């Protein structure tokens, strides 16, 4: 997996998790009212990376 694909996967997983877990729940219960699928999360991740690149940012592994 290329470094850019790895970044896309990490961002997509974070978006998916953020949209799937109810942050107000102390038990980590999944929110049935606000879900995104993995394809939506991947699309959003690509858009985030593209916007960062367009703004002159580079994602580097530290």
Question: Which runs of at least 5 residues are low in confidence (pLDDT < 50)?
Answer: none
Structural class: mainly alpha
Approximately what portion of the residues adopt beta-strand conformation? under 5%
Total strands: the figure is: 0
What about the largest sheet? none
Oligomerization state:
single chain
Radius of gyration: 14 Å
Measure the end-to-end span: 18 Å
Question: Helix tally?
Answer: 2
Helix content class: 55-70%
> Tell me, what's the shape?
globular
The tally of domains stands at 1
Which sequence of SSEs, written as H and E, runs from N to C? HH
Task: Describe, in plain words, how this protein is organized in 3D.
The chain has 62 residues and is mainly alpha-helical. It has one domain. It is 56% helix and 0% strand. The chain contains 2 helices and no strands. The protein has helices spanning 3-20, 38-54. The protein is globular. The protein starts with a helix and ends in an 8-residue tail after the last helix. The relative contact order is 0.18.
């Amino acid at each position: 997996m290329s470094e850019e694909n790895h970044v896309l996967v990490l961002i997509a997983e974070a978006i998916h998790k953020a949209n799937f877990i109810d942050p107000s729940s102390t038990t980590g219960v999944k929110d049935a009212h606000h879900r995104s699928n993995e394809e939506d999360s991947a699309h959003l991740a690509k858009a985030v990376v593209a916007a960062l690149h367009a703004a002159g940012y580079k994602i580097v592994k530290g």
